[in-house]
Structure formats: structure tokens, C-alpha cells
């Protein structure tokens, strides 16, 4: 049995809410007034994602990346590791924290663990990869940044500058992906 909102083609504010049968299917959900399929939240009038949605998605990834990267740098420095193992740990933790933020959100929405992991991987992999490539590339290119210590202003200014540039470069990537129903659009379907 369909409700009247589906029959008239009106969209829900959140396509991931459980339907009357208690599951998160996407039968009619996400249909626009013209009947065309919408892949996610924040889509503009011509089918592309809004800049606001892209910025929010990128900030979501950036938060996980920043936490992971800082924790990795602190651990590597505390253990007196060299640059390469410290950077590898920081990147691995960036992916771990980035995925975890999405994983917890979609688990709270009711997805089983396996499905939640699949959503987190689909939603965040490209975004985190671009962000880490940009951020770590900047750290590697700034003279002295790789050898700067945690109490050095060069370390923090390079790290924060790298995050800012990563935000600027990753936001259009996320906008493009969300507008095509990929990346964070996958996670938004389950919120």
C-alpha cells in the first residue's frame, strides 16, 4: 500500500527513513515531482548536488581525516618513528576514522554491520583518498615540514594549510559524485 505522498510524487525530507514495512528500501523514495529519480539529498534543480551539500560531505570526511592524521603523527612522533612509517600510520588512521564516522551514523540508522561497512566504503573512499593525497602532498612539498616536530609552528601551519587546500579541492569532487548518486549520496540514503 502506498501513501499519498508517493502517489503525488512528493519527495520525503529524508529518503532513508523506514517505510511502513520497517525497512529502508528505495522503491518510490527519491522521486522528484516530474517522476525522475533523485539519488540523494541536496540536489539542485538541474540534477546536480548543491555546494552546501558538497561542503558538508567534505567537512565530514575532513573531520575524520584530521583526527586520524593528527593521532597518527602524535603516535609516530612519540615512538620516534621516521617520516615514512609515521605518514603511513597517519594515512591509515585517517581512513579508519573517516570510515568510522559514516559507519556509526548508518548503524544508528538501522543498517546491519556488513551493509554499513559497504555504505561507508562507497561513501568515503574517493573523498578520503583525494583529501589525503592533497594534504600529504603539501606536507611533503613544504620545505622542512616533514622534519618539523609537534611543538613547531611549521608543522601545524603546514598541516592546517594542507587541510584547507584539501577541502577546496575535494569539495568539487564530492559535488560531482553526490550529483551522480555516488560518494556521500550513498550514506545520505540511510540517514
User: Unreliable runs, pLDDT <50, ≥5 residues?
Assistant: 1-46
Q: Would you tell me the overall average pLDDT? A: 77
What is the H/E string? HHHHHH
Structural class per helix/strand content?
Answer: mainly alpha
Number of strands: 0
Computed over alpha carbons, the radius of gyration is: 19 Å
How many helices? The count is 6
Helix content: 55-70%
The end-to-end span amounts to: 23 Å
Explained architecture:
- 63% of the residues lie in helices and 0% in strands.
- The protein has 6 helices and no strands.
- The chain has helices at 4-8, 51-78, 83-108, 113-141, 153-179, 184-188.
- Helix 3 (83-108) packs antiparallel against helix 4 and helix 4 (113-141) crosses helix 5.
- The model is unreliable at 1-46 (pLDDT under 50).
Explain briefly what this protein structure is.
By secondary structure, this protein is mainly alpha-helical. The protein is 63% helix and 0% strand.
Question: Which key features would you list for this structure?
Answer:
191 residues; mainly alpha; disordered N terminus
Layout of strands and helices, then pairs:
Blueprint: H1 4-8, H2 51-78, H3 83-108, H4 113-141, H5 153-179, H6 184-188
Helix pairs in contact: 2-3, 2-4, 2-5, 3-4, 4-5
